[in-house]
Structures are given as C-alpha cells and as structure tokens.
Amino acid sequence: MTDGTGRPLAFVLSPGNVADITVAPDLLRLAPPSRIFLGDQGYDARFLRELAASRGARVVIPNHPTRRNPHPFDPEAYKARNAIEPMFCRIKDFRRIATRYDRLARNFASAVALVAAITWWT
Predict the structure, then answer these.
(1) What is the pTM of this model?
(2) Considering just the CA atoms, what is the radius of gyration of the chain in Å?
C-alpha cells in the first residue's frame, strides 16, 4: 500500500481491548524509515522513543504529565500531527468502521483499507 506519491504505508490491526502503544513497535518496524516520529502523550515511553530514534527519526511526543524526567518537546513540529487526526475522524464517518460490524479481522482490515482509499480519492 502506498500514500499516492509512491511512499509505502503500513498499518497494524490490533484488538479493541489493547492499548495502541503495545503494537506501536510492530508498526514502526513495518513502516519505512522516516525523518520524524509524531505521537500523542499515550506514546510517551522510553522503549518507543529509543526505537524511533534508532531508526533515524526525530521523536516529537509531548511528555506525559506523570513523567519525572521530561524530554525536549517541539510544539511547532507537533502541529503537523493535525493532518492525521481529521483523517481518523473522516474514516469513522463510515458506520461499518465506527461500529465494527465485521467479525473477522481480515474483513475489518479490508474495509478500513477500502475506506482509506475512498477518503483519499475524494
């Protein structure tokens, strides 16, 4: 799968009762190397920061309020994350995705890929 410009994309379908940060390392390994790694406070973990940095990415994640030793944070670079959030909102406009009617993970993943292609096209 590519983003339309020829750059490859990756996604991992995780169970609904699993935190995203538990599958983030798998997704990071599947994705091509990038210059910047953007994430919200939920991704503020040492192991994930180190993995992204080892792949050559500059890590831009706001510090979790409970973090004792804060990392440097670039709020200007974090604004680029705004391009991602509306995409998830648009995908959830499709009832089949928002309510997850599919019983099989492969069917749900296919529906997400189809809806992503439709939203990119329109």
Answers:
(1) 0.76
(2) 16
- DSSP single-letter state for residue 58: E
pLDDT digit string (tens) for 52-61? 999 999 999 9
Residues 12-22 have pLDDT tens digits of 888 878 888 99
- Are 33 and 39 spatial neighbours (Cβ–Cβ below 8 Å)? no
* Nearest-angstrom CA–CA distance, 119 and 113: 10
Q: Please identify which residue in the block is written with the tokens 């329109």.
A: 122
Cβ(38)–Cβ(27) below 8 Å? no
Q: Please state, as a whole number, how many other Cβ atoms lie within 10 Å of the Cβ of residue 28.
A: 19
Q: Quote the crossing angle between the two packed helices 20-30 and 46-54, to the nearest 10°.
A: 10
